[in-house]
Structure formats: structure tokens, C-alpha cells
Automatic annotation (TrEMBL):
It comes from the Bacteria. GO terms for molecular function: CoA-transferase activity. This is CoA transferase. Keywords: Transferase.
Amino acid sequence: MTGPNPLQGLKVLEFSHTIMGPCAGLVLADMGADVIKVEPAPGGDHTRRLPGFAAGFFATFNRNKRSLAIDLKSPDGRATVHRLVRDADVVLENYGPGTMERLGCGWEQLSAINPRLVYLALKGFLAGPYEDRPALDEVVQFQSGLAHMTGPPGQPLRAGASIIDILGAVFGVTGVLAALRERDGTGKGQRVGSALFESAVFLVGSHMAGTAATGEAPPPMPARRGAWGIYDLFETQDHRQLFVGVTSDQQWKRFCAEFELAGMAADPELATNALRAKHRPTLIPHLRELIGGMAYEDVRARCNAANISWAPVGRPADMFDDPHLLAGGGLLQTAISAIGGGDLVPLPALPLEFGGDRQRAPLLRQPPRIGEHNREVLAAAGLDAAGIDSLYAAGILVEG
């Protein structure tokens, strides 16, 4: 990125764990904000130690941040954080309902210290009867109907990634940027809320509207009656799978030309998308037989020549070597280790481009060790070396 990052000069205190809060901090940090991850001493963010499929959470969502590991339950630790709040622009947190208030770091407490503060509360639910309930990504996928729409009939299924955590984080950042813009005019900060449940409901809004418009509840996606004539997964002769979508009449003509389907192109019963959707029970089996007799590379080339939407069926591990991501700067060499060191692996960059030269947000800091930046953060806030040493001696500050 040429010149300063868009959010350079913005100071953010992040009190977070798992995905939703760290993801919001990541978006701000990647765009240039100085994000200080305030971690609870002595253990820090528990995702540093998660096993199995969750072992990559910390590395994925905590680059470009500084770490301050401090005991907020102690009066001195709380007072130290309050000192940092004085000149902060944003505080973000995703702890359970009431946790930040019990720690003396809720909206009312911190806004009294800094009236210009924008405070992002990332929760399970926004205001209403559910607001005191804890929630997780999977919980709201089930409650909102998203899991019902994802799995086969009678077998609700969560999506294959923490999409609601990430969506709620992005909505939260959007709210923060709007509040900062409003602060430019009023001089005052405000509390911004984003939540998992409402984010999940937003995703099923089109299904709600469709139910109201037709009087029929939409079936789960695996059993759906699609709106498009061709919108399907196919297997090639060499046992590779790809998805093909033909969603307009112009695409249909090109598809027929490239796949040498002159008879279908001339068939008036297949002339429009609505007619093709009606005749899917006979159309799709014919195309499965056709594509099933062709090599994958041949199908791929014809789809490209027809300029229609298609995709191979990939796996996450395939993305490490994806030529498009590698060429466009879509992967950042990130330290994949619970303590911030270790091997470097390519992980996804923020999916944004900036400027006429289409630059991606860079990796400027590897995911931090716990408390790695205690001294520099507190020295910048005006604490002298003796004061910082005393916090270490009392166990209020830790690093590792």
C-alpha cells in the first residue's frame, strides 16, 4: 500500500477472545489502526492454546496487533487500563453480558473517562429478551434457521466456517467507522452494538421475504427447487467435480455453442431460464451424462470460453497454492504458533484493495507473544520503568 494506511493514527483497545472480537480488531489493524490487544493475565487469549481444528484461530485473527497482558481484576491493573483509555479512539470487546462492567471497563465507566470514545460491544444478541444470554456462532446458526437451510431436510447443519462471528465483526467495524465519522461533527463518541443472532437473521432475510411473497416456506438448500435452470455440481470422466451455473439466456446460448448442444439451443421449451428451471428433471440428467463423458480440463476450457460461472470443488488446503491468491497478494506469510513464532504459512489477507495500484493491506506485525508489547505500550502512556517493574513484580503484568 502506498502512503499511510487508511486508519493510521487510530488507537484501538481490543478486549477479546476467540473469533468475533479478534476479527473486528484484525480488520481495523490491517487498515492501519494501532490495535492493542488487552489480554487477561496470566493466560491471555485462550485461543493461543486451542487444539485440533481450532489451533489456527489465534494466528488467523491476531496479526498486526500489539499485546498487553494485564490483570484487570486488580485495582492497579484496572487503573492502568483506564489510563490507556484517556486517548483511545475505540474500545472493542466481545465478552459475555456484564463481564466488562464487572471489570470496571464497561461503556458507562469508560465513556466517563473519555467522552470521545467509540465503544464496540460484540455480543450474542442485541437489545431484547435474549440479550443476557450467551451465544456462539453455531447457536445462532441453529436458532436463526440458517442451519435448517444449510443441511438436508431434517438434518440441520452449521456452515463449514465461523461465518456469523466474522459477519458480526464486519458489521461491528462498519458501525465503528460510522460512529467515528459522526464524532467528527459532534465531538462525542458512542456505544455501537453488533451481535451474532441478528447477523445470522440478516443472512436468512431473503428466505423470510420469499416465504412472505409466495406463502411457502423454502426447502433447505440441498432439496431446493432452484431459480436457475443450471446451477449444479457435475462430475467429469476423470472423477473430478466442478460447479456450473448458467443463469441467463445469453449464457445459455454460449453454453450450448461451446458444448455443441445445437438441439437444445433450438428447443423452444428451453429458450428461457424459467422454462429451463421447469424442465430441470430432464435437463440436468442429460447434462450430467454429457459432462460425465468429458475430461475435467475440457469442461473447464469450454466453461471459460462460454464466459459462464464455474468452479472446481476445492478444499481449504488448496488455497495455499492458489495461483490467483498468490499473484494478487491474497496470502500473507504468517507465523503459525501459539507463542507468535515458528513456521510461516500463507494465510488470507483482508479481502480489500486500496488505491489505483490495487494494493492489499500488508502484514506489518506477526501475531504477538502474550504481553510482548507491555513495556512499550505503558511507556507511551506515561508510566516510568519503575512503575512498570512494580506491575510485573505484583503479577499484574505478564509476558511469555
